[in-house]
Write a structure and sequence with these properties.
Length: 80
């Protein structure tokens, strides 16, 4: 999709549900996402189906194709 300034970005119709890997308060959580309609809020749920409250402020979401390998490495302060 192209905006009024000519910048290109991807457009997703994120309605439904699917698998999610969340990083919250220093923890990696396997869970799911759910969004019943385009005008509805996306809910993130833990493995037991409980809502995961997100902290105030910026939230980063990365969309990847199903089956994409995910490699998670810890961040060690002072090591690049």
């Amino acid at each position: 999709i192209e905006d009024g300034n000519g910048s290109h970005s991807l457009e997703y119709d994120m309605v439904g549900q699917g698998r999610a890997v969340l990083f919250h308060d220093g923890q990696e959580l396997d869970g799911s996402w759910s969004r019943p309609a385009l005008n509805a809020r996306t809910d993130f749920l833990d493995a037991s189906g409980q809502s995961i409250p997100l902290a105030r402020g910026a939230v980063w979401i990365a969309l990847v194709a199903e089956g994409t390998p995910l490699r998670v490495a810890p961040v060690i302060p002072g090591v690049s």
